[in-house]
Write a structure and sequence with these properties.
Helix 4 (49-63) crosses helix 5 (76-97) and helix 11 packs across helix 12 (347-356). It is built from 18 helices and 17 strands. The protein has 484 residues and is of the alpha/beta class. It comes from Callosobruchus maculatus.
Length: 484
């Protein structure tokens, strides 16, 4: 078996596991099978990275005596559940064809090893933690394969520790990752350290896996990501689909011309639209803003039309602002209106005042994480989600903002970036003020709030039963207030 497959991994994939590698996977396989190879891969979604990792580690383990495979990752649990899911499938296929392999190798939920050489001839998963890079040292073997998952987020020091162990002839290294930052060792492995006609002495074989070219990705999936990420030129699409390094790690959400067009455009709402009033409460330095809007749809289909925006001096008392919101947002003017208030800091007093007056405001705390796992994987918190949704609505023509140049000025100066985990994050407001001299974007924030608030259609009849329930709930709160 070693003679047959050791220098033909592609044949091993087909004949051992019954799998046909994609042209993209084939390119990686041919690179990794070289003795002492160094392979670095940027990849978008759905290119088969986990399945490929599983195939390679099984081949390497089976074909080389006392082989050692070490997988290093930030989220080791995810690697174990992801990669080892494929390992189980491919191992089952291999022992159907060559049952005698079971006499030599053992597969558990998170381990694969040779029966008589456990601890030496095995697959090992190691977790990476910033500041604890030395824990990755000490891996030496004549046949060693290091696999770095999501390598873009692993520090240069950690990679330096691991490459320091590659001292023997057949020590190989494979790095795979979405290219989340244009700096560091992983970035250099695709540029200054990569082998190419201009750099024949390069160390690394650089490979880019574009999701658009993957046979495992459907056209519908690409269309969905174009919609989610805000177009082919967006930072996320470049990194997570095209597999390309971003030109810069940070930027601004929108250009001024896009914001000016959004103030002039006509946006048609869907049937069943509703009223939403969003409020940002000032803290003495920043102004208090009430924004009344018409909205329809949800998430990527939400449409927003500014109806009235009212700006108060920052010195306005939060309780007085609560009274102002209550008096302005009456049901006779705006049927079934939903009131949402930034409840952090002074906003909590405004919410409490609205409750005392008989309203039921939505409390926005957008520093908290998103609820759905797919959103947690993409956004650091609700603030990042709301800003990106608002940006995409403007870019796709689904939002009309007010005509004030102050709103366009604020919307065109919102810094954001992608962190090393590939998640979007907004620059903290204190950093905006200190580093870039950008004031708090109070007016723009009220538009962003709209994307994390639900609404009730303006023409929907709430009904007498619901009204009675609301009155009973509010009266019970009055009793509590009196007791206090």
């Amino acid at each position: 078996m070693a003679v047959k497959y050791r220098y033909d991994y592609a044949r091993a994939v087909v004949e051992l596991f019954g799998m046909m590698p994609s042209p993209q996977q084939q390119e990686i396989i041919e690179s990794v099978q070289g003795v002492g190879s160094r392979t670095t891969v940027t990849s978008g979604h759905g290119t088969g990275k986990s399945s490929l990792t599983a195939m390679l580690l099984l081949i390497y383990m089976i074909l080389y005596p006392d082989a050692r495979v070490v997988i290093v990752a930030n989220k080791i649990a995810q690697v174990k559940t992801g990669v080892f899911k494929y390992v189980k499938t491919y191992w089952a296929n291999a022992i159907k064809r060559h049952g005698w392999l079971q006499n030599y190798f053992v597969l558990s939920d998170t381990m694969f090893y040779e029966r008589s050489r456990k601890g030496i001839w095995e697959v090992l998963c190691k977790g990476y933690r910033l500041g604890n890079e030395e824990a990755l040292a000490g891996e030496h073997a004549a046949h060693l394969l290091l696999i770095l998952d999501e390598a873009s987020g692993i520090s240069d020091k950690a990679i330096g520790v691991m490459t320091g162990a590659l001292t023997e002839l057949d020590n190989r290294m494979l790095m795979l990752s979405q290219p989340t930052r244009p700096s560091g060792y992983f970035y250099d492995s695709h540029h200054t350290l990569a082998k190419n006609p201009d750099n024949p002495n390069g160390i690394w074989t650089s490979i880019v896996l574009n999701s658009e070219e993957s046979p495992f990705v459907t056209t519908q999936f690409i269309k969905q990501k174009l919609l989610e990420y805000g177009g082919r030129d967006s930072l996320e699409y470049m990194v997570k689909v095209l597999g390309q390094f971003p030109r810069e790690i940070a930027g601004y959400l929108l250009g001024r011309d896009e914001c000016d067009r959004a103030a002039r455009r006509r946006v048609l709402l869907e049937k069943g639209w509703g009223w939403v009033a969003t409020a940002d409460v000032g803290n003495g330095r920043d102004k208090s803003v009430l924004n009344i809007q018409k909205v329809s749809g949800h998430r990527e289909k939400r449409r927003v039309v500014s109806f009235k925006i009212l700006e108060m001096p920052g010195t306005m008392d939060p309780l007085a602002f609560g009274d102002f919101i209550f008096n302005e947002c009456t049901p006779d003017k705006y049927p079934n209106i939903t009131i949402a208030v930034d409840a952090d800091g002074f906003g909590s007093d405004t919410c409490a005042q609205l409750v005392r007056r008989g309203a039921n405001p939505v409390r926005i705390r957008w520093g908290k994480p998103m609820f759905a796992q797919k959103d947690k994987d993409r956004f650091v918190n609700q603030r990042a989600y709301a800003n990106i949704m608002a940006r995409d609505a403007i870019k796709s023509g689904r939002m009309r903002i007010d005509a004030s140049p102050k709103t366009a000025e604020q919307a065109s100066k919102i810094p954001y970036m992608m962190n090393e985990e590939g998640r979007l994050v907004m620059m903290r407001k204190e950093h905006m003020r200190q580093k870039l001299n950008i004031k708090s974007p109070d007016r723009w924030d009220t538009y962003c709030f709209t994307f994390i608030v639900d609404y009730v259609p303006a023409d929907e009849d709430v009904g007498g039963e619901m009204e009675a329930f609301r009155e009973e709930a509010l009266s019970s709160m009055d009793v509590v207030d009196l007791d206090l």
